[in-house]
Write the C-alpha cells for this entry.
Amino acid sequence: MPLAPPIPKNLLATLKESMDLMTEEQLLGVHHAVLDKEIERLRQVISDDAEREQAEGKWDNLPEVIAEYRARNRRP
C-alpha cells in the first residue's frame, strides 16, 4: 500500500497556488469535491443531532405525529 505524501505545513497556501494554475474544468472538479465534503460534514452533524434528540426522548411520539400529518394532508 503506497504511503500518502506528507501534508505541507502551509496547506492553504499550497492549495491556492495549485488552484491558480488550474483550468476552469479542473476548478469545477475541486469545487465539487469541496461540496461533497461539506455534504458529508452536514450529514454527520444532522445524524449526531438526531441521535441526541432520540436519546432525549424527543422522537418518542413520532409515529403519532406522522399519522396526524397524513390525516390532515390526505388527498381527496
The mean pLDDT is 94. The CA atoms of residues 24 and 50 lie 38 Å apart. The chain is about 70% helix and 0% strand. The helical segments are 11-20, 24-55, 62-72.
